[in-house]
Amino acid sequence: MTMGSNVSLTALSENVGSAIVSLGWSSTTGEGDADVSVLLLDSNGKVRSDADFYFYNNPVAADGSVQLLGKEPTGDGSEDRISFDLTAVPPEVERIVVAASRYEGARFGELDDLMVTLADAVGESLLRFVIEDAGPVSAIIFGELYRRGEEWKFRAVGQGYESGLAGLATDFGVDVEDDEAESGPQAAQEPAVSTPGAPPQTTLDAVPAPRPPAGQEVAAKKRTARPRTAKKKVTPPRAPAKSLAENESWRQARLFPVSALKNDRDRETRATSVLLSVMAQVPRFGRRITAPFGAPSGRMETFTEVSLPHGDTPRRPDGVIRVERAGKLWTALVETKTNGNPLKSDQVQAYMDIAARRGYEAVITLSNDVALEGSPLVDVKIDRRRKHQVALWHLSWAEVAHQAQMLIRHEGVGNAARTWLLQDLLHYLQHDNSGCHGFQNMGAAWVPVRNGINDETLCQGDPRAMEVVESWERLIRQVCLRLGGELGQKVLPAQRTRRGTDPGARRARLADRLCLEGRLQAELRVEDAPGLLSLSADLRTAKLRTSVEIPAPEQGYPLTWAKRLVRRLAEAPADLHVETLVAGETGGPRGTLERLRPEPADLLPKDGSSITGFRLSLFKGMGSGRGSAESGFIRSVDDAVDRFYTSVVVHLDAPASARTATKERAAV
């Protein structure tokens, strides 16, 4: 689409009762980001009340019409996804504005590949709008959904605001206030920039909060009645109560026991039933699992041991999920594998055919493997001539455990019984006998590739190198899930390639580098971390290196910087390597923390060169096995990332821009 153009959704697909809108961008530094927001507008082009403004602390509409799904990793970066149930949008809402904003002087002109896409209920991509030359604006309306009679249409907008979210929100009737105005001098104001010819507006610097409903009186000091744009404070869980067991041999009774599991079929049946039952009994968890697949928000029921006709032999999918919304049903068939068993194409194909004939919306595969963009886990044929199309989705057991951990430890479900159910589910998934441990095997090509690198016999173009690169990418995605679940923060793989790059071509380049250099490399973007967390596996030396680069402070003296850094790392491991980054040079002074503690001045270049930052690194021996046993490669990668983050990164300051953005968001 081009700026200003519009299109009817029903002209593109018959499955537009629900839609997924994705906002994407990329950054040459790998660090650029923005926050999405949605505003529901009436016939006057204004929000009706506080409930019509959706953002990171108000992500879900009570009626299920809007849900912010958060960031999802893609093959070349990440994107923010928003789920819309257009059948649930109140009739008085005529327009839905989809926007994004940046903070602390950051502008969209610094980002590349600004794009909005829209997919229908089965995941079929319907449209794309690319914003060219965004310029020095800190907020942009990417597009809007609007009614025309009985149908919904989409308009490509691309309108920017130099005044950020404050100026944008004021345009749509959101009142903007500033805390300083209540306690003292009026805060500085700046004009909002809209499209040419628009009347000038005056807004405050602070991030706006939506106005209260019309006619509702709010006390001047009663700020809790207004939605907060600051992120929720996370309270760590309390220590468990002292056990009443007589000794350690006593095992606590479990709702979901694992002792009776004898074979893979038992594990698949038990795991499917356990997961689906908890999804139905804990609505917030069930919604977390199904929303990315286009399911509406509504009453959920789940089933196992279902028999469905298919030719001469009925088929029995492992499970069925049904969601009812406004008298309509959304249905997904579930095929489960445990213990690293691969999905079978003929099974999945049969379920796709059954779902298409019966008018079901999706087939969900669930296994320990991790799906990659451009590299499907199973090959199925989709008959495009069919009127009803079925979406095929994949879910990893690691993602299931991640969502349970986020709700238990960081967000809550508001009910002690539901929390207990999630805890028992998580205990089941993490038990050695459940078979639901996530990605656990680097594949058959791992040992031959390692040997070929050591013997210098591995040649570029060897397909086994591509297999190892794909396994490495799966492992990194799982590491992000585990670390994010522990921290309660977003952790995503960082890709430095431009958006739109073919995933297969990118992996081919990484495979060639593996053959030439013998190294696997990745970067993780951790929310509020001072920089990207880098991970390198050198197959020649069998060493893992975890590192982070932190920029030099903008003020002060180099010796002060060095002393302060060493003080902050007082509890870090003594074998931590600290390297000074020097402008225009390959590297500056370096040494272990143990040697630098008594002499921080050793970090200063002898020739007085300008310091641009510091690189902190930990080295660890690499496991030799391809699996996740104590001596395996996967376990060693998990341990290396956990040790580096918990012993080094947590002691460092968040970047100044992140700290200031947090203050701005908390101002209202």
In terms of per-residue confidence, which ranges show pLDDT below 50 for 5 or more consecutive residues?
A: 177-237, 657-668
Count of DSSP strands:
25
Strand order of the largest sheet: 19-20-21-22-25-23-24
Termini gap: 36 Å
Rounded to an integer in angstroms, the radius of gyration calculated over CA atoms is 26 Å
Give a verbal description of the structure:
- The chain has helices at 164-171, 179-183, 264-281, 283-290, 345-358, 397-411, 416-430, 446-455, 463-487, 503-517, 558-568, 593-596, 633-647, 656-666, and strands at residues 6-8, 18-26, 35-41, 53-54, 66-74, 77-85, 95-101, 112-119, 125-130, 139-148, 151-161, 189-192, 201-204, 299-303, 319-325, 328-336, 362-367, 391-396, 491-493, 519-526, 533-538, 543-551, 577-582, 590-592, 611-621.
- The chain is of the alpha+beta class and 668 residues long.
- It has a seven-stranded antiparallel sheet. A six-stranded antiparallel sheet has the order 1-11-10-7-3-4.
- The radius of gyration is 26 Å and the shape is globular.
